[in-house]
Design a protein that fits this description.
The protein has 233 residues and is an alpha/beta fold. The chain has a domain of 111 residues: RlpA-like domain (Barwin-like endoglucanases). The protein has three helices and six strands. The radius of gyration is 21 Å and the shape is globular.
Length: 233
């Protein structure tokens, strides 16, 4: 039986309403501190970032560690292209505290990150492509494999303690208690107490701003088992 014009109009309006509600539901999941997964296979020609060294590259040029990004606080939309971003998982049960470095090669429509799947799986330790929470920071381009801004970037390390968790080949060093590089001691990936800053947000002396964060930090990095008040047992 043919559908009447009124019925067809009602169906169209209902579909539009459902679509609007769904789009709002999806958008609500994405914040500046969220990450979803995206496949970047092969050449990057055609991505939104028009930077020549990105357009002529492939995802493999960056070891697969690439992402799309949208940040409403960045004055110039295209200024996000080529940035090196440190992503840290803050998702409970999904490699909490794990960090990776990704290059921005594409732009997205709402806040947050669309991380290439291989990098995503390293970050969260899962093949489930959901939307998870992260912390992020713009860091020096030399932290990102294949990033052509290395050596030219003026982006400071967001937290001076970050360098205490990096190998010497990436500009890291062994640190004192105030996250200043030690002049002796050789190379490595940092010493306590700054090591715990890769698991919690630190003050300038590498103390966890939220003492409960210490309960998620291995003892080898200055953490401890806690009681219900987050005091070390």
């Amino acid at each position: 039986m043919a559908m009447s014009l009124v019925a067809r109009s009602a169906c169209v309006m209902l579909a539009a309403l459902v679509g609007l509600l769904c789009s709002r539901t999806v958008a609500a999941q994405h914040t500046a501190n969220s990450a979803s997964a995206h496949y970047y296979n092969g050449a990057l020609a055609g991505v939104a970032c028009q930077t020549p060294w990105i357009q002529s590259a492939s995802a493999d040029s960056f070891g697969g560690y690439v992402t799309a990004w949208h940040n409403t606080n960045t004055p110039s939309y295209n200024a996000q292209c080529g940035q090196c971003i440190k992503l840290t998982s803050t998702q409970s049960g999904k490699n909490y505290g794990k960090s990776i470095f990704v290059t921005v090669v594409d732009l997205k429509g709402w806040d947050g990150f669309d991380v290439n799947v291989p990098a995503w799986q390293t970050l969260f330790g899962t093949s489930a492509l959901d939307v998870y929470s992260i912390n992020w920071a713009q860091v020096d381009a030399c932290n990102c494999s294949g990033n052509k801004n290395c050596g030219t970037s003026t982006t400071p390390v967001a937290n001076k303690c970050d360098k205490c968790n990096l190998p010497a080949s990436s500009g890291g060093c062994k640190c004192d208690a105030n996250c200043n590089c030690l002049t002796t001691g050789g190379t490595g990936t940092g010493v306590a107490p700054c090591d715990k800053c890769k698991y919690c947000k630190c003050n300038s002396s590498c103390g966890c701003i939220n003492k409960c964060d210490l309960c998620n930090v291995p003892a080898s990095a200055g953490g401890c088992k806690c009681n219900s008040n987050c005091d070390c047992i």
